[in-house]
Every structure is written in C-alpha cells, then in structure tokens.
Design a protein that fits this description.
This protein is α/β, with parallel strands linked by helices. Among the domains are: 134 residues, Diaminopimelate Epimerase, Chain A, domain 1, CATH 3.10.310; 251 residues, TIM Barrel (Alpha-Beta Barrel). The chain is built from 21 helices and 22 strands. The radius of gyration is 24 Å and the shape is globular. The relative contact order is 0.15.
C-alpha cells in the first residue's frame, strides 16, 4: 500500500475550549488547552488548537462557559482521616452537617450504631462535634454519652481531632480512673462536683495524648472492611472537591507500609504524598530499629504513592485551647488560671532539634504542626540550629497551620526558607470563637496572616486539614478572599484578605512548589501533567462573596476523569494482610 502521507497535525486526546481558562502562569488566560497521553501539549488560541491538534479521535470538550483551572493540590490533610470522616457518624455542624446540640449529637451516634458498619464496630464512634457551636457551648460528658449506650464504649471526636469525649465504658476500657495521672502532653478532664482523690473523677473529656488511646482503640474496633476502605474513600472524597494530589500527613510507619500495600493492590488514580511521624521515624533511626531509611522518601510515585518526609507535632489546637501561646487565652478553659497559655507537645527543645536534625540528615522534608506562637518560636529555634549545622539547602520546610504567627515570625520564616501553610478556613469556621473566647479581637484579626507573607514576596500555601472539615477546595478559596465568619458574618482582619488569584495559587502552583513538583504540576502549561479541574464559575472573576457557591463539575488526573467516578475503588479481599491501625490524625482547630 506504500507509505501514508503524514497528517498535518498531531492528534490530541482532548481539547478544551469555550470557557474561562485560568492558567496560573503567563499568559494568565487562554482560549484552548490540548492534552495528549496525559500531558498538556498546547495552551493558546482556539483556532490554532483545532488546526494543529484535532484529529479523528480527538475529544473536543466544550466547557460551556465554565472555568478550567489546574487540579488542586492538598498542601496538608489526612487522606485516611477523610475516609474515616465518610465512614463514622457525622457530628459536624452546618454547613457540613446538622448537629446543633447535645441531643442531636446523641441521636447521630445512636443512628450510626444501627448501621451495618456501626453494628459490626466494637465502639460507637462519631467525628466532628464543636463545642463552640453546640447550643450548650460545652463538650459532651461521660453522662451524656452513657445515654447513647451503656453496653458499648462510645467516643465522640472533637472537630480538631485533638480532643474527644467517651462514656463510662470508654473510660473503663482506657483504664482512666481517679488514680490516673495526666499523661505528658495531655489532660484527663475531671468532674468539678465530685471529690475523688487523688486527681478527681474523670468526666469523659480527654485532651491530646490522653485522647489518642481512645481514638486508636475506636479505630481498631472498626470492622476490617471499613478500615481497608479508608484510603479509597478519602481519595474519592478529595477528588470530588477538585484535588488531584492529596496528603497523608503524619502517618505511622506501619500505616505507611499498609498504604503502599493497598496502592500495590489497587493503584491510586490520585497522587498521594505521605509524611511519616517524625518522633517514630527519628526513634527508628537512633535506636537502629531499621536498616536504611525507614521512611524511604523520594520524588517518584509508585502506584500513586510517594513518601516525602516527616511531620512533627509541637502543640495542640487553638480552637480547643490546647495550642501553646506566649500570651494567655482570652478566656481560659474551666479550671485553668487566668495566665493559662496552653502547653507544648514536646517540652524539651533538644528533642525538637533532634527530630529536625535527623530529618535534614536523611533528606526528609519537614512539616511541623505549630499553631500557637510559642510553638512557632520553638520550631524556628530548632530549624535555625539545624540549618547552621547542616548548611544551606533547598529543604522547603513547612510550618503547618501557623495560626497565630507573629509579624516577626513571618520574617523568620522568610529568612529560614520556611513555607507557611495556613489553615485559612479557620476564619470562617471559628473566627467568632477566636474573637470572643480564644484570642480576643486584636489577636484574632491576624490569624492565618497570608497578607504578611505576600508582603514579603513569600510563597505560602493553604489547606483544609480534613477531616477537621470537609476537604473543600472552594471553602479554602472563599475563606482567604473574604475572611467572613460563620456565625456573626464579620470580616475577620480585612487587612489579611488576599486576591482570588493569590488564593488559587495557594492550592495550585504554590502547593506544587511546596512538594518540589512545580515543574510538573500546579499550572496549565505545555509539558505539565494534565491535572485539571472544571468549576461551575471562575473564582478569579466572580464577586468575592459568590466564590463560596461555586461547584466542582469535574476532576481530571493526567487527562482522565476521576470525578465523577465511574466506579468506587475496592481493595480485593486478602490483597492486603493488615488494614490500617492506630490512627492518630492530629489536625488543627
């Protein structure tokens, strides 16, 4: 038949056109985007795209006026926690749930206990209550949860995942009695009206390290099928909000191995970046528990998963008033003195330095949970000392949350190359609680100080920290642009508002930079992965107050639609020897 004449075009798999295309690059907009083999091959003029890249098999996608943006990148979250959020009782308040008071919280737990997963679970467990918005303004107690069940342990997890409440059987299962000392870095709250030497009768509310054994026991008590599905459910939920890269932040080494095994059985369609617990990883190295690198960090994804480094935990939750501040809380928790400032997770600065030093020695990127400015001081001191020892380098160390970062601390971030990753949704969810209870008006106005970072021409990112809230990309954008609070509808610190484009950058190109992946992700440019999201409207051009109403229409990973998903991801029975265990998702609020 002889040689066929060469076509005057390269045939693309996809061409997008007739919408508002936000490239997050130069030029900032385009008329069309062409994709071939999962890679962006053309960005520019519509006619040129059709002339150069349309062939018989090309799918030409009419955006119908909708917006096309780079796929969103999760700068910090907990993939398994998102799956857990979708598995256990939903105790969240509006707009993510409908728990309004103790009675509705109790009913949600009772209802879940009667579901197939609930009936098979050893514990009755729910996540997401917030004492700041409950009608009673208090945590549920053992007495409240005894009304849910006296036959099974009950755990209600606070929205921060730093606190929780258990019933009497839960306390018994944990071995918490009046004889129990508070653990280091945690508090067993006591009844105020019952004298029970030596420490007082536990009232069911547990903070930080006192809470962690309760969450571990309740998660271990879930049926195996539910635990095996946590990562998959988390990926599906994140993709529904436009995320094409997600994080499993602060996993145990055991669960990191299980994550990899699950991915080997059924590869993830979404990229998962994992960070192991810094304390466990450091101990494994110093105690010679493992040969080689226990984290096995590297730049390549295997079956959709890569480990990038370690996560440290230096304090608690400002919303729960366990974060470590340099100045007292506006209103201390019951039973605490007026000068109460919270407390550190690690009291010994030398231990913090050892964790950072070990990470730098092994090439592990460091993420550190730091909410209060005292914990930020502790972290800055460790990074400064470790950097002096190790010498300069492009390490992209990250201060996760940095809620109460002071002006001088943002300067230190810039000098030390620390990237602040703000949990900007705090301005919406808990802004009123910060104003009235946690920090007072003046300090509350500058939480998540993104504007200060921009003034220093710094790269910052923003995250959802799910399961604290839903992994809601649109809420991340809206909260940065408007900083409007949930209840009182005030603008919390208008001087810290940023532009919609800066907000978009915080979950696209900036987040890609945080992961050392800016050359392949984060913007719509030729040569980059076709990680894309289609939105019902353009967040850059709509009125700021309208951003919150934008819907995610489609999520595309490397040129393939992953939301809406054709089918759920299921791990075959027996494909993984052990399901995830002992989760401790230390989130932020």
């Amino acid at each position: 038949m002889g040689d066929q004449p060469q076509a005057p075009y390269d045939e693309a798999d996809l061409i997008f056109h007739n919408g508002e295309i936000v490239t997050v690059a130069e030029p900032p907009t385009a008329e069309a985007v062409a994709v071939k083999n999962g890679i962006i091959v053309f960005v520019g003029d519509h006619a040129a795209a059709l002339d150069r890249w349309r062939g018989p098999a090309t799918q030409v996608r009419d955006l119908e006026g909708r917006a096309l943006l780079p796929g969103f990148i999760d700068a910090h979250g907990h993939l398994g926690g998102i799956g857990l959020q979708a598995t256990i009782a939903n105790l969240l308040a509006d707009p993510d749930g409908d728990v309004t008071d103790i009675a509705s919280l109790q009913q949600k737990l009772r209802d879940w206990a009667d579901t197939p997963v609930g009936r098979a679970s050893e514990w009755i467990v729910g996540f997401g209550y917030d004492d700041a918005v409950l009608e009673e303004g208090v945590h549920p107690t053992r007495d409240d949860l005894d009304e849910v069940s006296t036959e099974r342990p009950v755990l209600a997890i606070h929205q921060s995942f730093h606190l929780g409440a258990v019933n009497s059987l839960g306390l018994a299962a944990l071995g918490y009695t009046p004889d129990s000392d508070d653990p280091d870095g945690g508090v067993i709250r006591r009844r105020e009206d019952v004298e029970a030497p030596p420490h007082g009768e536990p009232n069911g509310v547990l903070e930080e390290t006192a809470f962690s054994p309760a969450s571990a026991a309740a998660m271990a008590g879930l049926p195996e099928s539910a635990r095996l599905g946590l990562f998959g459910k988390g990926a599906e939920s994140a993709a529904s909000f436009g995320f094409t890269t997600v994080q499993e932040g602060g996993t145990t080494l055991e669960n990191l191995g299980i994550l990899r095994a699950i991915a080997a059985a059924v590869p993830f369609e979404i990229d998962v970046v994992a960070y192991a617990r810094a304390d466990e990883s450091t101990a494994a190295v110093l105690n010679r528990d493992t040969i080689g690198d226990p984290v096995e960090a590297g730049p390549k994804y295997v079956n959709g998963v890569r480990a990038a480094g370690v996560k440290m935990y230096l304090d608690g939750s400002p919303q729960g008033r366990t974060a470590w501040l340099t100045k007292p809380y506006a209103k201390p928790p019951a039973g605490k003195p007026d000068d109460y400032c919270g407390y550190p997770t690690i009291k010994d600065d030398a231990v913090v330095l050892t964790q950072v030093r070990t990470a730098y020695e092994h090439g592990w990127q460091v993420l550190a949970h730091v909410n209060g400015d005292a914990s930020i001081d502790q972290f800055i001191g460790a990074v400064r000392a470790a950097t002096e020892e190790a010498g300069p380098g492009d390490r992209r160390t990250v201060a996760i949350h940095a809620q109460t970062a002071r002006h001088d601390q943002i300067n230190d971030f810039a000098l030390l190359g620390i990237i602040p990753s703000f949990f900007s949704m705090h301005t919406y969810y808990w802004g009123d609680w910060y104003r009235k209870t946690v920090l007072g008006e003046e300090r509350a106005a500058n939480i998540s100080p993104a504007r200060w970072a921009l003034e220093r021409r710094m790269i910052y990112t923003s995250h959802h920290d799910a399961p604290v809230a839903l992994p809601n990309s649109i809420a991340i954008l809206s909260s940065q642009v408007t900083r409007r609070t949930r209840t009182d509808k005030v603008v919390l610190g208008p001087d810290q508002c940023v532009s919609a484009l800066d907000a978009v950058r915080s979950i696209t190109i900036n987040a890609a930079h945080q992961y050392f992946e800016q050359d392949t992700k984060g913007s719509i440019e030729v040569g980059k992965l076709a990680d894309l999201v289609i939105l019902g409207a353009n967040p850059v051009t709509v009125a700021p107050e309208e951003i919150q109403h934008i819907k995610v229409a489609e999520t595309i990973k490397a040129g393939r639609t992953i939301h809406p998903a054709i089918a759920s991801r299921t791990v075959p029975h027996g494909a993984v020897r052990t399901p995830p265990v002992d989760y401790q998702w230390h989130c932020n609020c």
